Amino acid sequence: MKKIIFNLILLIFVSNHLAAQLPDGSPAPDFAITDINGNGYSLYAAMSGGKSACIDFFATWCGPCWSFHSSHVLRDVQTNLGYTTSVVMMEADFATNTPCFYGPSGCTGRGTQGNWVSGVNYPQADLGPGNGETVAYEYNVTYYPTLYVISPDFRTWEIGDRSYQNYYNWIINSFTLNATGSVTHSPCGDDGKVVLNVTGGFGSLKYKWSNGAVTKDLINIPGGTYSVTVTDLNGYFESYGPWTVNGPNKRVDIVSQSITHVKCFGESTGKIVIGVNYGTPGYTYNWSNGNNTNIISNVFAGNYSVTVTDASSCTVVKTYIITEPSLLTAKFSTFNETCDGQNGYIATSATGGVPPYSYDRGNGKQSNAVFSKLKQGTYTVTVTDKNNCSLSQTLYINGTHKPVVKPGVSTPLICGRDTIFFDASIGSSSGNEFIYTWTTRNGAIIGDFNSTAIKVAKPGTYNLKIENTVDHCENSDSVIVKDLRKYPDVLATGDGHVNCYEPDRILEGKTNALAIKYYWTKLNDTLNDTSKFIKVIHKGSYVFNVKDTINQCVSKDTVVVTENKVYPTVILNKSNDINCKYDEVTIDASQSDQGPDFNVEWTREDGSIIAGLKDLTLKLKEAAFRTLNIQNKINGCTTSKEVEIIEDRIHPIAEAGSSNDLGCITMTLNLDGTISSQGSQYNYFWKTINGNILNGSNTLKPLINQAGNYILNVKNTENDCESEDSIKVQEQTQPRAQFTFVKNNFELNFTDASQGIATSWNWSFGDGTTSVEQHPIYLYSKEGEYEVCLEITNECGINKSCQNVVLTNSAVLSLSSWEVRQVSCNGYQDGQIKLNLEGGTKPYSYLWSTGANTALISNLKKGNYSVTIQDALGSQINKGFSIDEPSAILLANQKINHTISGSATGSIEINIAGGYAPYRYEWNTGATTSTIQDLAAGTYHVKVLDANSCEKNFGPFEVNELTSTKSAELFSQFEIKPNPVNQNGIISVHLNSKQDLKIKLYNANGRLIHSDHKYGDFIHYSMSFDNYEPGIYFVVIQSGGYQMTRKWVVQ
């Protein structure tokens, strides 16, 4: 019968628990149960006296439950906060039994993770029939662990961040939230206040008032009743109030008004009537113009303000505007009469007043604003608007006239006066407004056709037109010129051709005229020669001039000389110079002039002719000068051009420079080849077989990150000569100090045998003397036992090694030195003791407390060790040694800042103690510092290494996602179930509208392992976890630039 009841309860529990956990703030059902020790527990009784409570629903087989239990968060809460809270833990899987609390022995159902009872200081109960069988149902438990905190007012709040600090924030901060209000009444209906005094709560607080306000205080409110809900950063909320504010529900106000505007500009016919309501009746009025009733009249246009005061002396002030039409104005445009054409007119453009307008110039009103066909004179125009307002304007129309044209007096052409000058500025209209235009049909005008004065060179009729550019009036007149000239006779001879064979010609000028003067000129040249005969060497048109000295008439004759002095084209192309790439040079002149009309001749630098060489291609294998001469056999002209062959086989300088070491800090370094040859003509290339070049392999300073041999190649691109140099780069590793020594009586020669490439050495010789040499020689002053220590340093850390040295002059058996090497890491067994003997009689025997029988014992852990040494004659030495180890590497403290939804703003900061500083960090993100930032939601791990390369792993550190308001508005529902999940699960998302949704699944290390996208507003997405390892995963949904994250536990 018990089994039937149990199955029935389980069926009811499963069928009715498909919903999520209790919403935050829900009433916490009371329950009474018996714990596994037989003690009774009542929730409300345990919370008496204002206590809170912490409830853990779990299953003994649940992995995440065990992880949370092993964190001892609830044990620390009970220990530290038990004075103000009560902790209880309830196993909610009916299929398991009470022995599952203690381990596998006798455990039924799905099993157990281990001993749940050990170290627990709070009640634990096994729920089942007869012992709280409905408690899990009443608390809507759908996954394990389900964690609630119960506030002192018996409301439930689900725990998200399962850390002690989060419990502390809820119990100590959130549950102490309290608010009181201070009320200021509102006699005017808008000047009331409710000011809150808030204590307690966690983080920033949010407020929601009954009137919709979200500020801490209510300011400038009307009379009424107000209450507020205060919510802290954990989502814990409390409601306070109500508070009553006395006063009207609205300030006195003007509810109606009637305005009569001024009809015409400048009149005083305005009027305002107002109606008043609200506030406390019994109103008085005070207008800006002194009136004290609700009506003002017969006022000008303008701004009028009124102050209405109610019976409570509360006021309302309003300003009214009485308008008037704008001032009636008009623009009058007059257009003058031009060139006496009776074509003047007046155009009017009216504005202001009230359209439409009428126009009158004394002959009656008209709607047309233009008066045309007017003569020069005075006119009065009147403009009238729709309201019969008018204005008048007297206007004057001017007139223009044709210009006066006086082209000048008619004058004939004579020798000595080849041109006639006419000046129209005398007697004609003048000024900048006039344009002058001269024209002729059979004459010749010299000068500007548009000036007042011109010259003419031929007989003919010349016409002048003058135009006024201001009024555009124009007029014309003309003048006649006759030709009265007579010229002397002239003859010039000597036409012909010049070239390189006949380079010049003789020209002769002749005339029979008397009283003359003659001379030679050349077209487009400055030649002026007064001889009859002249010698010319260039082509051109040569003019012989004969001038009659009486009438000044000049006659001319022209001789034309042609010329062919075109020199041959010589083009020399040199294939290259002699350098590291080329041993021979080809000189190519094949583009030069060539053929039967040309002679070819090559000469050396001393001018001697290279006999028999007529080709236009020449090959040379040494530096030299060569000249090519080509003659045009037709005109005898010769062109010569020289070429120089240069030999350059100088190799560039390649210098790979000196090297620094890579190390634990210097992860990369730049090689320096800047001593090498430099310039734009050089190319650089670095190469390596066993190293690695990150970038800059074609520069003088490449960036590398790996030890090895590097080769620099420098090439001169101008002569193709190149050189190489190499450099070896080493890498510093974790230093490990070692040394040997050779004794010569009291003088010891020390040799550094350390590993890791040290950069500094610090020797301590045991007698107060030190040295920083790598291989020191030290002379002790007396016998004794000395501890010699060598401490070495590089980028990867510091390491120290010590040996004890005994100096004596005795031949008795003695320990000359010993070396004790401490354990490198906490818990390791790599300690070592090495003995060196002298004196006595060999062979020596050893008996260690460990049973070893050699001078060197190793693989030692922390502890004390002793040895008995005996020589062949029975002499003995007893000696004890201590092996120590560093403290364990510990996480001193941590600080986690969670991320904001839709971004990567989280951070983790850790502080390490123990081991040997400095520490190195290797995060699963690739970061190498103690603090990592810009983190998305997820779990993170770090490996910490100390100066001895001892390592310790810490984590996981969980960064949660804080949901933004925008995300909450976009995603109205986001559920994953079941959680934990074994095989198949459902992701349910409700969006505020249909849109694209990205669904991503990340593992605990933040690696994306699944991605998909859907479209819609109600999306149900199925996932199979058959191929996923058990653990923690994160579901991320993204849409519209926002995202939300949920944690999903796979079992």
Task: Report a brief summary of the structure.
With 1051 residues, the chain is mainly β. The chain is 5% helix and 47% strand. The chain has 11 domains: 2-176, Glutaredoxin; 181-245; 253-322, Immunoglobulin-like; 329-397, Immunoglobulin-like (Sandwich); 420-481, no CATH class; 491-564, Immunoglobulins (Immunoglobulin-like), CATH 2.60.40; 573-645, Immunoglobulin-like, CATH 2.60.40; 669-729, no CATH class; and more.
Description:
With 1051 residues, this protein is mainly β. It folds into eleven domains: 2-176, Glutaredoxin, CATH 3.40.30.10; 181-245; 253-322, Immunoglobulin-like (Sandwich), CATH 2.60.40; 329-397, Sandwich (Immunoglobulin-like), CATH 2.60.40; 420-481, no CATH class; 491-564, Immunoglobulin-like; 573-645, Immunoglobulin-like; 669-729, no CATH class; and more. It is built from seven helices and 77 strands. The protein has a seven-stranded antiparallel beta sheet with strand order 55-54-57-58-59-60-62, with no helix packed on it. It has a five-stranded mixed beta sheet with strand order 5-4-3-6-7, covered by helices on one side. The protein has a five-stranded mixed beta sheet with strand order 33-39-38-35-36, with no helix packed on it. The radius of gyration is 58 Å and the shape is flat. The relative contact order is 0.04.
